[in-house]
Design brief:
alpha/beta, 5-stranded parallel beta sheet, 42% helix, 17% strand
Length: 133
């Protein structure tokens, strides 16, 4: 594997880094907590994840995260931010425009019978942002 993603109840970032070494990717779930995101970035996480931003069929009881948390976090850290939770081609642009660098999408890709078309729609969100810069 090229790395690991650590949730709230997984091992610590430091323990994972010790096991994996410096050349592997380690991401950290920060849910809706700016302090957790700052801490993960300071310790060396390669990326942090915030969410759930919308209702998610995958994790129905996930903590919700507001755009204000995404905006504030993006101003304070330099590592990429992954937005997660109920993200679709219809609502993902708002997250990108407010500081998300990446979108984690499960339902949007697999609920449709054509995952390729779904992925293409999501990719176009980033293309729109780049074209407007």
């Amino acid at each position: 594997a090229d790395g690991v993603h650590l949730g709230q109840h997984d091992m610590s970032y430091r323990a994972a880094r010790r096991i994996l070494g410096n050349d592997k990717i380690i991401g950290k779930s920060c849910y809706n907590d700016i302090t957790r995101a700052l801490d993960a970035a300071e310790k060396g996480a390669n990326y942090i994840a915030l969410g759930s931003f919308f209702n998610s069929a995958t994790k129905k009881k996930a903590l919700r995260c507001g755009l204000d948390v995404l905006q504030e976090t993006s101003k304070k850290i330099k590592v990429p931010i992954v937005a997660i939770g109920g993200i679709t081609a219809e609502n993902g642009l708002t997250l990108i425009e407010n500081g998300a660098n990446l979108l984690a999408c499960i339902d949007a890709l697999f609920k449709d019978n054509n995952g390729f078309n779904s992925a293409r729609k999501l990719n176009r969100l980033f293309e729109r942002v780049i074209a407007n810069e």
